[in-house]
Specification:
The structure holds two protein chains of two kinds.
Chain A (H helix, E strand, L loop, with lengths): L12 E10 L2 E11 L4 E5 L6 H8 L7 E6 L2 E2 L4 H7 E4 L11 H12 L3 H10 L16 H14 L4 E5 L7 H16 L3 E5 L3 H7 L2 E6 L2 E6 L1
Parallel strand pairs in A: 3-8, 3-9, 6-7, 7-8
Antiparallel strand pairs in A: 1-2, 1-4, 4-5, 9-10
Chain B lengths: L2 H22 L1 H20 L3 H32 L3 H7 L4 H30 L6 H29 L5 H12 L1 H15 L10 H27 L1
Classes of the chains: A alpha/beta, B mainly alpha.
């Protein structure tokens, strides 16, 4: 059974002349970008180029002050709640409760959105978290297993757009491979992935497209 | 979000918070012992049955207020240690529903703590609780707890993203919660008959506590999302 993600006929991300401020500094300075569904887009650029701000705008966390845009079919200015419900973001933290087991963490998210047991089992199975691992408190997991649990939550939430800020950070080589495999699976199942990473060689093999940012605008875009 | 959706979110947060408490046992193994030790130290400091019986309501609520800070800190520490509160925000969860879930979990834990403190005060300080005072004591305790939980949840959410939140939270909450301390103490004095007070003198304080609880609970549910967002 394939996981079901929020998808729409429109592009996953469509931003035009987007300006977003971080502490009064224009971290995005008139950015234009279109991301089609199912793509794995790698964001590159120096620190301060606007990668994290772009991810936050797509997550509905940072508003744009000029321009317009849609994420998963919802307006990034007037429908930020809808945007947030259709995307999932994993940054440096995983958003997990250490005292709860893997299954209990997923059950919590399932209860929030009314997901059934089947969907929880499916998410755990896809992420290799079923069996004994499901009953282990999260505080007892390795960094890679924690990251997989965070991704499982995105599956339970049916997030159609995965926004990942440095998803390989803090993981060993094996866990990084696991992350790459999971992202390929998610993309194959219909999810769109946008990630920033300093692991350029690794991510270039994974990504279907590379978008280079500088000064808050796209300066390079290649497949 | 529909009202059934909000109830679903609030219920999930409530049950998650109580599940974490059941698993970690922080209330029973750390906070209740701390509160009881505080009461015992009050008894040592104010040696003398007459003084203790006269001041018992205030001492109970002071111990309650200090201990509640630890519960509140803990309630939000689990949300911030791995960015879970941020994840809820990013996921577009209705933050007013998250507020109600955390508020109710706090109310339940604080009521357990109060029960222990009141029982401890009755035993240690030799207070006689009149039958006519029981209803007043229960009503005032519930009202005060609802208000205290609301104020604590609002400010704990506000402080959750700030460095030094452990010391900031009491500084924010204690001044605002002072009407709860005053009202709950006066109502408990009336329930206990401290200093010749009668039960009827306590009911106006229940009114004050109820208004406080309603204002801060509903105000908090509206303000919680924007406060967390900022």
């Amino acid at each position: 059974m394939e996981p079901h993600f929020h998808t729409s006929g429109s592009p996953a991300v469509e931003l035009r002349d987007a300006v977003a401020l971080m502490s009064d500094f224009p971290a995005l300075a008139g950015l234009d970008l279109t991301v089609e569904r199912g793509e794995i887009v790698m964001l590159t650029g120096a620190n301060g180029a606007g990668k994290t701000t772009l991810l936050r705008v797509c997550a509905g966390l940072t508003p744009i002050t000029r321009g317009y845009g849609h994420v998963m079919g919802a307006d990034v200015v007037s429908e930020r709640d809808a945007v947030r419900q259709r995307v999932g973001m994993v940054a440096h933290s995983n958003g997990l409760y250490d005292e709860l087991t893997v299954r209990e963490n997923l059950e919590f998210w399932g209860a929030l959105i009314g997901a059934g047991d089947d969907e929880l089992h499916q998410a755990m199975s896809i992420m290799g978290l079923d069996g004994r691992l499901a009953t282990v408190p999260v505080r007892g997991l390795s960094a890679g297993q924690r990251r997989r649990t965070a991704f499982a939550i995105l599956v339970v939430r049916r997030a159609g757009l995965w926004l990942l800020d440095e998803p390989h950070a803090g993981l060993d080589s094996g866990a990084r491979d696991e992350v790459d495999d999971i992202l390929r699976q998610a993309s194959a199942a219909g999810a769109t992935v946008m990630l920033s990473s300093h692991e350029l060689d690794r991510v270039e093999q994974l990504a279907t497209r590379r978008v280079h940012l500088a000064g808050g605008v796209v300066v390079g875009d290649g497949r | 979000m529909s009202s059934s959706g909000r109830i679903q979110v609030a219920r999930a947060v409530l049950s998650k918070d109580l599940q974490i408490e059941r698993r970690s046992k922080v209330l029973t193994s750390q906070i209740i012992p701390f509160a009881v030790v505080t009461l015992v130290l009050f008894a040592f400091a104010l040696d003398g049955d007459a003084i203790l019986q006269r001041t018992a309501p205030g001492l109970v609520w002071l111990a309650m207020l200090f201990s509640s800070m630890i519960i509140v800190q803990r309630s939000f520490a689990v949300e911030t240690s791995d960015g879970a509160l941020d994840a809820l925000r990013v996921a577009g969860a209705d933050m007013s529903a998250v507020f109600w879930g955390k508020w109710l979990a706090l109310v339940i834990q604080l009521l357990v703590l109060e029960l222990v403190l009141l029982a401890g005060a009755i035993v240690m300080f030799g207070i006689e609780l009149r039958a006519s005072g029981v209803v007043l004591l229960v009503t005032s305790s519930i009202s005060a707890t609802c208000g205290l939980s609301a104020v604590s949840t609002i400010y704990a959410g506000l402080a959750s993203g700030v460095r030094g939140r452990e010391s900031l939270l009491p500084l924010l909450v204690l001044p605002v919660a002072s009407p709860v301390l005053i009202g709950a103490t006066r109502a408990a004095e009336a329930a206990f008959g401290t200093g010749g007070t009668v039960v009827s003198e306590g009911w106006p304080w229940v009114g004050v506590l109820s208004v406080f609880a309603v204002v801060f609970s509903f105000g908090g549910s509206l303000a919680f999302g924007p406060l967390i967002d900022d």
